[in-house]
Amino acid sequence: MNIQNKTVIISGASRGIGRATALLLAHQGANVIATARNAKDLAALEEEHPGIVAVPGDVANEADMANVVQVALDRFGTIDIVINNAGYGIFKNVEEITATEWDDLMATNVKGTFLLTKAALPTLKAQGSGHVVVVASDVAKRTFAGGSLYTASKYAQEAFMGALRKEVRPMGIKVSGVYTGLVDSHFHDKGHGHETSAHYLKEQDVAESMLFIVSRPAHVVIDEFMVHPLEQEY
Q1: Is the CB of residue 116 less than 8 Å from the CB of residue 135?
Q2: What is the four-CA torsion angle of 186, 188, 192, 195, rounded to 10 degrees?
Q3: Model confidence over 168-180: pLDDT tens digits?
Q4: CATH of the domain spanning 7-227
């Protein structure tokens, strides 16, 4: 299987892993619907490749995600792959986290995954095929001090994927979780390209992992894909 002419929706596509993945899949011939809240950055991404269609939206907003799916159907008639990539982190001790911070992060990382997936599922079920990918983190499998909020969101994504996988596998729909280690990106406080991140995974590394996952033959599903930089102990 290749992804030529496949329709792919990617959330959190305005920068980082999402942006790199959108460009790589478009270069491979996919029709990419790129969504994120930052309309300016999305427009710049759209200009880089004719295979990318920018649809600004907030993953935590149900109407926005319904619109993203509708644009994909209006433009290309189907949806083949949904990549839930939108997310961010807050790293504080429990007593320092505000209720608003908790609600906002969970709305993006967890509710956003649910809403985009839910919006696309009727199409995937009707056609009896499709692929839902969730970009989680290796902290969906472990915890660390100061990571209670972020790890809770990733554990929630893990549980969501597990249940979804059991629901849709009999219908011919694949569900894959991507568990990344340290990535040199804007995600970290010191920003992209800092010397301390020199040996981290690159955004392109994760994008290439994503391409591998979604380009397997129809009878093959990669349920879980864990990837780390060599320097990170696992």
Answers
A1: no
A2: 180
A3: 999 999 999 999 8
A4: 3.40.50.720
